[in-house]
């Protein structure tokens, strides 16, 4: 008998509630693996006959690759494979509970049913995701509050600035908005791995290790026309300045709309935020991590070399660098390939820095392996270990002779204040001690030596081993830069250079000072200021020298990262050189958000944003961008008239919240003098 097309009731609301997928806005069933879902269908001739169900995914489904399963109705849920248990039946409809295995391939499935000898009839499609709420899943996370934060939360805070001055800005991950799930699935189908061998690629999609690595490659555009194109030049023509984005939704939608052309432009936090969105969307618990004074050790010797000329200018020589901060991801899953102690948080990094296995991908590197110096374990533990542990070497380089002289080395500089957002609160949590033992402790040095030994570096130059000439050449003076006054764009920058004579005889010192605007990666962009002084320090004397860099001097030169590096190279007569340096990150002026009245579901509420021009010239080309999941659809862009000196603009707009609970509104304000002033406000929406 030819089967009539059955009609299916997917029980979308009930299944979504059970499977923690209610936040997706989809007409398609979205469920998590290793857990039962219920469907009812009619149109099979005689439901009491033996029904056989068929689920299949990917281009060439087969039982061998676990992308096809056939199963009939049984009385109990199968421990191993797919199973169906009959819930109830009436004259023309049957209600079935279907369960998938804990290690099922994730993605979009086609479901059909066959009754008796008739050919299979399609019931439709559904999407299967990872299940951190289920104890059999590789991504199982026992703490429910952590599941809420790392899978279901659409708002995040990303930390930036530098280790002396940490700041944070909001981000709208938006993993449940509109078409994001479909875009995430299409990212998988556009990877190099899929293009080379679609059948094998799909069969590996049960494994969070595999997907994490594939997605760390696909989120950057290198190799595979992935989602975001990186740009660290300080010039962003033909695209958006990386610091102007406020959420992942706009980026992922643009990638799809353009026919999958890489979106311009990203820097580390953009790659990390987009990867967070994709992994949370697929059900893998994920967070962003910021490492301050982060080493990019290009040659894998656990050292970063920085070069300076006699004037104190930082030279672009060698591929190593130290970034003021770097943002990567941690995802939570088991490491059956390494053993139980290596499970838990795994580092993934989608920023294209170095190739791994021939393409720009990084991780998963077990955080435990990083802390223990197990640099020989998969994947990319050496690179991440260096990011948080490398030793810094500062050299004086003479370009005429090619001679380089070590000024000093430091083993405690790299990997400071490693930060992430707290669970359920808008606060910073320091996770440095999860990456390494305390700086300066014997244990930390032992782990560093263990890592060097594993990499075959133990005979090479060890910057921390005392050597005769270094003992003889102790510096005669010490120096530091102190900040005097506020660090704000629009205000003069006031610093003090503090020099101290450590010896009991007088010292004459020639000091060459420079200030450069830089990117957050320490790359120099424009020289702002230079000066030189000659000073005499009496025995054991400490002297302070005030430095003032006026706003008009740096205003044109500043990058949108708002970072300035000041250096003083001190030439001590008959002594060794001393390098004093400091990275300074300026704060933008403040912007204020007020919600006028109570925020209720499906009711209009007015929001007011106020900005005061802090400088004594007019600012123009003012634009306000607003976004926030469940508060407004897409991004609201408002143009604001020019503001005279000290004038305040007040802009009002309306929101219609669509869901109750604590929601976050993100605001980004730009004008010709200030780029991307960001703030966010928690809005408590009631029913």
Q: Topology, please?
A:
Layout (H helix, E strand, L loop, with lengths): L6 E3 L2 H7 L10 E4 L4 E6 L8 E6 L11 E7 L8 E7 L3 E7 L7 E9 L5 E9 L14 H9 L2 E8 L2 E8 L7 H9 L3 H5 L1 H6 L4 H11 L9 E3 L17 H10 L5 E4 L1 H15 L3 E11 L6 E6 L5 E2 L5 E13 L10 E5 L16 E2 H5 L9 H9 L1 E8 L4 E8 L5 E6 L6 E3 L1 H4 L6 H13 L13 H5 L4 E7 L9 E9 L5 E12 L5 E14 L4 E8 L1 H5 L7 E10 L5 E8 L5 E6 L8 E8 L9 E6 L8 E5 L7 E8 L5 E10 L6 E9 L2
Parallel strand pairs: 2-9, 5-6, 12-13, 15-20
Antiparallel strand pairs: 1-3, 3-7, 4-5, 4-8, 6-7, 8-9, 10-11, 14-17, 14-22, 15-16, 17-18, 18-19, 20-21, 22-23, 24-25, 25-28, 26-27, 26-29, 29-30, 31-32, 32-35, 33-34, 33-36, 36-37
Helix pairs in contact: 7-8
What this model shows, in words?
This protein has 687 residues and is α+β, with helices and mostly antiparallel strands. It has 4 domains: 7-129, Sandwich (Immunoglobulin-like); 144-455, Alpha-Beta Complex (Coagulation Factor XIII, Chain A, domain 2); 474-585, Sandwich (Immunoglobulin-like); 591-685, Immunoglobulins (Immunoglobulin-like, Sandwich). Helix content is 16%, strand content 39%. The chain contains 14 helices and 37 strands. The strands form 9 sheets. A 9-stranded mixed sheet has the order 1-3-7-6-5-4-8-9-2. A 6-stranded antiparallel sheet has the order 19-18-17-14-22-23, with helices on both faces. Strand 36 and strand 37 form a beta hairpin. 44% of the residues are buried. Ca(2+) binds at residues 389, 391, 439, 444. The active site is at residues 268, 326, 349. Residues 260-352 form the Transglutaminase-like domain. Belongs to the transglutaminase superfamily. Transglutaminase family. Its cofactor is Ca(2+).
């Amino acid at each position: 008998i030819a089967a009539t097309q059955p009609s299916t009731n997917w029980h979308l609301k009930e299944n979504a509630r059970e499977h923690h997928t209610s936040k997706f806005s989809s007409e398609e069933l979205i469920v998590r693996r290793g857990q039962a879902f219920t469907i009812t269908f009619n149109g099979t001739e005689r439901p009491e006959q033996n029904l056989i169900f068929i689920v299949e995914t990917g281009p060439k489904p087969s039982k061998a690759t676990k992308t096809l399963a056939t199963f009939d109705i049984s009385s109990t849920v199968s421990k191993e494979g797919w199973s169906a248990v009959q819930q109830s039946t009436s004259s023309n409809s049957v209600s079935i509970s279907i369960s998938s295995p804990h290690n099922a391939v994730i993605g979009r499935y086609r479901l059909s049913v066959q009754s008796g000898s008739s050919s299979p009839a399609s019931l439709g499609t559904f999407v299967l995701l990872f299940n951190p709420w289920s104890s059999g899943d590789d991504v199982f996370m026992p703490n429910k509050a952590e599941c809420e934060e790392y899978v279901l939360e659409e708002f995040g805070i990303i930390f930036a600035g530098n280790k002396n001055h940490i700041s944070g800005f909001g981000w709208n991950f938006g993993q449940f908005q509109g078409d994001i799930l479909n875009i995430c699935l299409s990212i998988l189908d556009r990877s190099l791995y899929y293009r080379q061998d679609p059948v094998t690629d799909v069969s590996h999609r049960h494994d969070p290790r595999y997907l994490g690595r594939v997605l760390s490659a696909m989120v950057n555009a290198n190799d595979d026309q992935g989602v975001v194109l990186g740009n660290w030049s300080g010039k962003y023509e033909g695209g958006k300045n990386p610091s102007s984005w406020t959420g992942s939704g706009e980026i992922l939608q643009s990638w799809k709309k353009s026919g999958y052309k890489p979106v311009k432009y990203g820097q580390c936090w953009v790659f990390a935020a987009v990867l967070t969105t994709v992994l949370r969307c697929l059900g893998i618990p994920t967070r962003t991590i910021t490492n301050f004074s982060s080493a990019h050790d290009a040659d894998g010797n656990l050292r970063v070399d920085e070069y300076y000329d006699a004037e104190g200018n930082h030279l672009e020589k060698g591929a190593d660098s130290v970034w003021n901060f770097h943002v990567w991801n941690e995802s939570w899953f088991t490491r059956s390939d390494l053993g139980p102690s290596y499970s838990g948080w795994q580092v993934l990094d989608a920023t294209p820095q170095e190739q791994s296995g021939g393409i720009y991908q990084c991780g998963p590197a077990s955080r435990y392996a990083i802390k223990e110096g197990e640099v020989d374990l998969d994947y990319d533990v050496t690179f991440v270990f260096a990011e948080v542990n490398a030793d810094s070497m500062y050299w004086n380089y003479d370009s005429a002779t090619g001679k380089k002289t070590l000024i000093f080395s430091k083993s405690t500089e790299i990997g400071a204040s490693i930060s992430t957002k707290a669970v359920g609160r808008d606060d910073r949590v320091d996770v440095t001690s999860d990456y390494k033992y305390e700086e300066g402790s014997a244990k930390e040095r032992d782990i560093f030596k263990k890592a060097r030994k594993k990499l075959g570096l133990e005979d090479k130059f060890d910057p921390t081993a005392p050597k005769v000439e270094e003992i003889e050449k102790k510096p005669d003076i010490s120096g530091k830069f102190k900040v005097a006054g506020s660090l704000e764009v629009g205000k003069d920058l006031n610093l003090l250079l503090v020099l101290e004579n450590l010896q009991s005889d007088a010292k004459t010192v020639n000091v060459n000072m420079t200030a450069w605007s830089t990117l957050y990666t320490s790359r120099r962009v424009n020289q702002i200021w230079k000066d030189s002084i000659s000073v005499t320090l009496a025995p054991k004397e400490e002297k302070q020298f005030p430095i003032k860099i006026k706003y008009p001097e740096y205003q044109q030169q500043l990058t949108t990262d708002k970072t300035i590096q000041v250096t003083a190279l001190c030439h001590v007569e008959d002594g060794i050189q001393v390098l004093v340096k400091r990275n300074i990150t300026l704060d933008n002026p403040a912007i204020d958000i007020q919600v006028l009245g109570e925020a209720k579901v499906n009711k209009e509420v007015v929001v007011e944003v106020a900005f005061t021009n802090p400088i004594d010239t007019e600012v123009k080309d003012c634009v306000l961008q607003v976004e926030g999941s469940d508060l407004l659809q897409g991004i609201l862009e408002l143009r604001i008239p020019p503001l005279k000196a000290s004038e305040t603009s007040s802009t009002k707009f309306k929101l219609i919240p669509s869901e109750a609970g604590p929601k976050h509104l993100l605001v980004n304000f730009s004008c010709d003098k200030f780029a991307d002033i960001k703030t966010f406000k928690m809005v408590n929406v009631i029913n």
